[in-house]
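[Q] Does anyone have a clean structure-token version of this?
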Amino acid sequence: MTWIKDIPYDQADDELKRVYESVRSLYPVEYAGPPIPSLVRPDGGTDSIVAAHSLIPEAMRHMMSGLAILLQPNLGLTRRQQEMIAAVVSVENSCFY
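[A] Here you go.
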């Protein structure tokens, strides 16, 4: 769970919604699925590393677009390798993501 305020897509203004959409369009298709049930909080919300950047839309655009480019399937790492690296980094940082 993020410890900072974030603005979910459904509460975003038009500019922020455009940033969310532009970032999401760059991610691999596997990321477009419905929320994973085990990650849905009791209040019905879900945590999002993208939404954690929502207070500064231009920062979100640059940070998340760069990450999306690094996740492209035509690069040297397989999806499994990418996920393993992300999991190890998250564990090391005591981060739920």
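[Q] Thanks! Anything notable?
[A] Helices lie at 14-24, 57-70, 79-92.
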